Amino acid sequence: MSTVALKDVTKVFQDGTIAVDTINLDVDDGEFMVLLGPSGCGKSTVLRMVAGLEDPTTGAVLLGGELANDLSPRERKIAMVFQDFALYPHMTVGDNIAFPLRLAGVEPTPRGERVTDVAGALGIGDVLGRKPSQLSGGQRQRVAMGRAIVRRPGLFLMDEPLSNLDSGLRAELRAEISGLTRELGVTTIYVTHDQAEALTMADRVAIMRKGVLQDVGTPTQVYGRPATLYVAAFLGSPRMNLLEASVYVHLDRYVTLNLGEQALYLPWDDIRSRAVAHYHGERIVVGMRAEALTPVTPDTPGHVLQGRIRYLEHHGHESLAFLDIGATAIVVDEMGGPVESGENGQRGLRRFGQVMQRLAGRAAEA
Ligand code: ATP
Fold this sequence. Notes:
Organism: Micromonospora inositola
Protein name: Multiple sugar transport system ATP-binding protein
Low-confidence stretches: 336-345, 350-366
Distance between the termini: 38 Å
Keywords: ATP-binding, Nucleotide-binding, Sugar transport, Transport
CATH topology of the largest domain: Rossmann fold
Number of helices: 9
CATH superfamily of the largest domain: P-loop containing nucleotide triphosphate hydrolases
Mean pLDDT: 85
Bound molecules: adenosine-5'-triphosphate
Strand content: 25-35%
Strand order of the largest sheet: 6-7-8-3-9-10
Shape: elongated
Order of helices and strands: EEEHEEEHHHEHEHEEHHEEEHEEEEEEE
GO molecular function: ABC-type transporter activity; ATP binding; ATP hydrolysis activity
């Protein structure tokens, strides 16, 4: 069983920097867990503590349910791949991949078979005789992956392994890496600051900010129901609309979210009404994704928010409209067809397709 558990793990460096603050995280056997967060939030430090390259200041690291704080990196049966993967320049690709097996004393015949298998799985079977200098960046990264995985580690740790590659290659390799680790059933912790990478590769994503774990969940959970305002604002492009609203529960059983001069109406049978009803009389922050709002013409009957288009942005597969609703700026995904800004730029917004989450707190915290 290759599980990882962090129990109240804190890392304070000698200069007093609190890089990781009381983190609790469980990674299941065979799971692909992504640690996501901006630069300096402590992701690499978490990974290095799991690897045994840093000691936690307090707290416990458990591997396979056993306390691992005192185990050396070698005793942890892990493999690591970093952004600046270092291959041995004088060795061929085949020898680079075989190197960990040679160290472990694996006989030449099974060693050769394992190298062929791994190279085949990574699509580099035809370059085994070349030197690293004769490879493309993507091929070199595949060799680094092959060398890490050839010993069939129980746990695979990767720190921004794709960040030195161009975007096309990154997209290709991220599918390969997550496919390969799943095929091998190896538990993986993958560090990145790239949310597209995190959301496409992960079984679950752990989002960090300033050493503190903000949220852990499947990509759908953290995107759709972020646990904190920070996560709501951090995940997704364009950013989630975060609007301050006052909640009123009306006795004829509907709820309004008052945004200054205009209001959003939620019928009582909408489950989101009940979610916000207990904030009656309070100001809350309501989060809604651009794709949750449907643009309509301004003369559409019913409860329609009126917005003024500031500008449109065309992205090929989608168009975004940036609007002001009174003093509030929002962004809407033009799924129903492009909007022309027209003479006065007025636009109606039909409902709120989804209230992704209501987040008690102030938008300023985000
Ligand atoms: P990046 O994506 O830029 O690598 P990260 O999220 O992985 O960032 P860490 O490298 O874990 O972040 O660093 C977390 C914090 O700890 C940062 O403020 C960093 O400057 C600090 N830090 C890291 N290593 C040390 C060290 N050896 N001594 C003091 N502070 C350190």
